[in-house]
Design brief:
The structure is a single chain. Helix content is about 30%, strand content about 20%. The protein has about 260 residues and is α+β, with helices and mostly antiparallel strands. Strand 6 and strand 7 form a beta hairpin. Helix 1 crosses helix 8 and helix 5 crosses helix 8. The longest helix is centred in the last third of the chain and has 21 residues. Bound molecules: zinc ion (ZN). Zinc ion (ZN) binds next to loops.
Length: about 260
């Protein structure tokens, strides 16, 4: 299951293919979207925003296409005029002079103006995205301490997209290890110092994963690389304290932690 960093990287590759280039051809499978196709020709994709697992494709004419892939939708980048060898059903095709982006299989797609975007039920429900670089530690800390979230255990809270979008299971376990916290804690139980450390980890770890996951050579990257400290490391020694990492299940998902240093 992709988490925020993987979704943002996928959005980056879509942007790299078509952003800022006039659309030469636009095609939608769904009848309710087809009336927009003609008016989008000649417009450009200004920005592709991620909000958790939702993608917002912002066009230069002020419209935004909302799409949510659920478990089965997939975007592809193709050369203009090319079609993918796939049994998936094509739903959206946005083509420029040289590249096209194609959305397959997704069923939750809508074209929205600014007012409809602001009122969209999913977007109203989902929290700020950890890969939105304007989101600060102070804002995350305030959200942790808000009455809505301060009494929720971290095991469930860190998977709840209404709290912060873009976190998922591997980020949940890595953030709690980094903050040296056991998963049953709640924000209302923590000291100010612990809250600061946790809020910082909630932004730093997803952003480091986004920037460097999959990069293997530190000499090439010139900086810290994202590496799993506990995820999929059950039975191995913890690099911080030497304790043995344990695996269990929390909120119906695999959970990894070090009993030696996560208190
Ligand atoms: Zn440890």
């Amino acid at each position: 299951m992709p988490e925020g960093p993987e979704i943002r990287r996928a959005a980056d590759s879509l942007e790299a293919a078509v952003k800022g280039k006039p659309l030469t051809s636009v095609w939608f499978a769904f009848p309710q979207l087809q009336p927009y196709a003609a008016e989008l020709v000649g417009c450009t994709v200004k920005h592709i925003e991620t909000r958790g697992k939702a993608l917002l494709t912002h066009f230069s004419n002020g419209l935004t296409m909302y799409s949510h892939n659920q478990l089965y939708g997939v975007w592809r980048v193709m050369a203009a005029g090319e079609t993918a060898q796939t049994t998936r059903v094509l739903r959206v095709r946005l083509e420029t002079a040289d590249k096209a982006i194609l959305l397959y299989s997704a069923s939750d797609i809508a074209m929205l103006n600014a007012d409809e975007l602001a009122a969209h039920p999913f977007l109203q429900r989902v929290g700020p995205d950890v890969l939105d670089m304007s989101l600060t530690c102070a804002q995350v800390k305030a959200r942790l301490l808000s009455p809505r979230f301060c009494r929720r255990q971290f095991s469930g809270l860190l998977l709840d997209q209404a709290f912060l979008a873009g976190l998922g299971n591997y980020l949940r376990v890595e953030i709690l290890w980094q903050a040296a916290l056991a998963p049953q804690h709640r924000a209302c139980d923590l000291s100010d110092g612990q809250l600061n450390t946790l809020a910082q980890a909630m932004l730093e770890i997803p952003r480091l994963s986004y920037q460097t996951r999959g990069v293997v050579d530190e000499k090439v990257h010139h900086g810290a690389l994202f590496r799993f400290k506990v995820f999929h490391r059950g039975g191995e020694p913890c690099e911080r304290c030497g304790g043995i990492i344990e695996k269990t299940t929390l909120s119906s998902r695999p959970f990894y932690w070090c009993p030696g240093c996560q208190e």
